[in-house]
Amino acid sequence: MSSVNELYQQLILDHNKNPRNCRHMDHPTKIAEGYNPLCGDHFTVFLEMDGDTIKDVSFQGAGCAISKASASMMTTAVKGVKKAEAEDLFQKFHTLVTRGMKSAVEDDIEELGCLGALAGVSEFPARIKCASLAWHALHGALASEDSKVVTTEE
Ligand code: ZN
After folding, report:
1. pLDDT value at residue 101
2. Which long-range contacts (CB under 8 A, 24 or more apart) does 119-122 make?
3. Could you give the residue ranges of the DSSP H alpha helices within 18-57?
4. Pairing, β 41-50 against β 30-36
5. Among 133, 120, 134, 119, which Cα is nearest to 76's?
6. Rounded mean pLDDT of 58-78?
7. pLDDT digit string (tens) for 86-132?
8. Domain, as residue range, for 116
9. Spacing, Cα 52 to ligand 1 middle (Å)
10. pTM, full prediction
């Protein structure tokens, strides 16, 4: 198990250091801001939709290593998928980070791929909001027609 954890840790470090799709989008179809006041993480998620498909996705902002790595992984996970698939992935990811790897179904873990690297945050409740912030923003962007501000406070 420790070698898996090490691999996961390296994945998080890598995404934090070299975030994917970290850029401004000039003409997004949808946009949402995510703010986590507990930690100060603040990201904007941009979507370019083609009908029901997320043609392109990017993010910008600043936050802790977990939130940034998670935002980066989120963009690689949902780029090119349908809206419904992205929402489904969000639910599975949310279950994973709130309840941990043990609670997840094997099929879900496989589907989540590198997102599984963030399962460890389930042991640190304060970090769960960091890990799910970009996903909440994605969810908010998908759900609304206009730009929207999403916070992790429920
Ligand atoms: Zn954070």
Report:
1. 83
2. 119/8, 120/5, 120/8, 121/66, 121/97, 122/96, 122/97, 122/98
3. none
4. antiparallel
5. 134
6. 97
7. 999 999 999 999 999 887 788 888 889 889 999 999 999 889 999 99
8. 3-152
9. 30
10. 0.91
Cα of 40 to ligand 1 centre, how many Å?
6
Cβ neighbours around 1 below 10 Å, total = 6
CB 63 within 8 A of CB 127: no
Provide the residues around ligand 1 (an ion) whose CB is within 5 A: 39, 41, 64, 67, 130
The two structure tokens encoding residue 79: 């780029």
pLDDT of res. 154: 45
CA distances from 7 to 75, 82, 116 (A): 20, 29, 11
Given a contact cutoff of 8 angstroms between Cβ atoms, the answer to whether 105 and 77 are in contact is no
Q: In CATH, what number is assigned to the domain containing residue 75?
A: 3.90.1010.10
The residue type of 129 is K
CA 8 to ligand 1 center in whole angstroms: 18
Give me ligand 1 centre to Cα 36, in Å: 7
Cα(85) to ligand 1 centroid in Å equals 26
Count of domains observed in the chain: 1
